[in-house]
Design a protein that fits this description.
Shape: globular
Oligomer: single chain
Radius of gyration: 17 Å
Largest sheet: 6 strands, mixed
Strand order of the largest sheet: 4-5-6-7-8-9
Number of strands: 11
CATH topology of the largest domain: tt1808, chain A
CATH architecture of the largest domain: Alpha-Beta Complex
Order of helices and strands: EHEEHEEEHEEEEEH
Amino acid sequence: MSIPAVTKHPLLDLARMATFHSLSVAQYHQMIANGILLEGEPIELIEGYLVEKMSRGTPHDEAMDFLDQALAALTPVGWFVRSQRAITLADSEPEPDYAVVRGAPVRNRGHHPLAPELGLLVEVSDSSLGYDRNHKTRIYARAGIPVYWIVNVVDKQIEVFTQPSGPGESPAYATQEVFAVGTNVPVVLDGNAVGTIAVADVVG
């Protein structure tokens, strides 16, 4: 089996390069099971290619320090929060900074959370901002993730994407709202607001 090259951000248009071969999610899992890729390596499967995750700066981790508690406090019964762990989509297995997942955290689930189980994904972005706005937005819209946040620590705002197109030629979100410092972002699951988070508390 040919192993796709590990690429650095921004994601290259590797599909047009004959020397690269894409992986299925099943092949990616087999590489981990066989020890070809080690669990915990800073690598994600993105649209069939292995992509090296960017290192995180202090503003990124400070935003996560707050979100760790804020999201957990607002998540209602019937949902739980995962942080920097894999989710499985049709051709990708990214590791978003946060995923709010339907159900309860149980052992022996047998798989990473799938698209229908996901209510909200959050990426905290500093050096990865362009990548998260372009490639991750496309991937999550294609998968039908209902709500996607980019916590933009560079511009001190939270960008909220809703109404995903689903699969298609140009997957995208129909709606984008930008919440600046001084405003509150609603946390929405299944179309219902379960609380709000002050932007200043996250990126101020």
